[in-house]
Amino acid sequence: MTACRSILLSCAILALAGCQDIGTDSAVCTTGKCDDPSAIGFGQLMPRAPEAPGAIAITRNQDRWLCEVIGDRGDIVLLSVEYAQRTSALNGVLAIEENGVFADQYRVVQTGSGWSFELRAGNNAMLADSKSFATEQEARDAVTATRELVAGIVQYKEALQHGAQFELTRDGSQWEFELFNRDGDSLLKSQVYSRRLDAIGGIESVRNNGKNDSRYLVVDSPPRFILKASNGQEIAESSQTFDSVEAAEAAIASTQTLLSSERVANPW
Predict the structure, then answer these.
(1) DSSP type of residue 161
(2) Is 84 helix (H, G, I), strand (E, B) or coil?
(3) Distance between CA atoms of 227 and 221, rounded to whole angstroms?
(4) Pair type for strands 54-61 and 216-219
(5) In which domain, by residue range, is 126 found?
(6) Which of 55, 96, 134, 136 gets the highest tally of CB atoms within 10 A of its CB?
(7) Whether 186 contacts 240, CB under 8 Å
(8) What is the CATH number of the domain that holds 224?
(9) Which pTM value belongs to this model?
(10) Are 202 and 236 in contact (CB under 8 A)?
(11) Cα–Cα–Cα angle for 101, 187, 42, rounded to 5 degrees
(12) Total number of domains constituting the chain
């Protein structure tokens, strides 16, 4: 990230319109546990509108356009290559969203002033690079944080668009969640939890294990699939049964692709 490509931060901070409370439930459930059935209403819970973890902004530097990946404190963690047109920069944002959620797309490199990292596309073209770090480990730690930041930005965008999402519900003292795709079709339904905190942990477990093919088990009669954790414990199962084992396997592939894209919003 060279000095000639520095951008005014004031042009990059996005207004966050979705951060205010939307109901009394937010004051009750923000700690991750709501086990008292009388504390809040039943059914689907959305305690508060999602808060943006950061943003990907487009800025202009004289006759060139750039994309900035900005953290929640306004720090620029990635600065894109320069584009001649704004429309190209818009495509650059999409490329950062598509590739920035995958750790394998980052490259840590040594420079004359220390260490930095680059984000590259599937064809190995460079999309953006970082500032300089004193050590290689600092750069690698920054890669992990940046990948998580981009994933959070993508999930936040999905939440605003009412796309793919996890939905958390309660019936009495029991908690469950479902995974829905962008068309509103239910893909996965969880086991029953006695605490909201445990259900939230189950959602994170689906995010992690659901990207791994070896975590799925196809069951016949009737055909369906089960998602398990690394210790073999069942996390969730398919929301429907299928006409064939092949159809169940196709549904697994679709679920994996969705989870790997990080385009699934949280229910809080």
Answers:
(1) T
(2) coil
(3) 17
(4) unpaired
(5) 3-16+52-160
(6) 96
(7) yes
(8) 2.30.29.80
(9) 0.79
(10) yes
(11) 105
(12) 2
Residue matched to tokens 């169940």:
248
The residue written with tokens 């900005």 in the block is: 70
pLDDT of 233 reads: 94
Structure tokens at 221: 């009669």
In 3-state terms, what secondary structure has residue 47? coil
Residue type, 44: Q
* 132 and 12 part of one domain: yes
Token pair recorded at residue 170: 């309660």
- pLDDT of residue 156 exceeding 70: yes
> Which of 2-6, 72-76, 96-100, 152-156 has the weakest average pLDDT?
2-6
Kindly state whether residue 25 falls inside one of the protein's structural domains: no
Buried b (16+ CB within 10 A) or exposed e, 69-93: bbbeeeebbbbbbbbeeeeebeebb
How far apart, in whole angstroms, are the C-alpha atoms of residue 254 and residue 259?
A: 9
Instruction: Please state whether beta strands 114-120 and 76-80 pair in parallel, antiparallel, or not at all (unpaired).
Output: unpaired
Inside any domain, residue 194? yes
d(CA 57, CA 214): 37
**Tokens at 240, concatenated:** 């429907």
Written as six digits, the tokens of 30 are: 């923000």
Beta strands in 181-223 (DSSP E): 186-190, 216-219
Assess contact for 203 and 168: CB atoms under 8 A. Answer: yes
3 state SS of 83 = strand
What does the pLDDT read at residue 43? Answer: 53
Edge-to-edge strand ranges of the sheet holding 165-171: 43-45, 165-171, 174-180, 186-190, 234-238, 224-228, 216-219
Its sign, for the CA torsion 174, 33, 204, 231, is: negative
Nearest CA to 200 out of 33, 3, 79 is that of 33
Domain end: 160, 194, 222, which one?
160
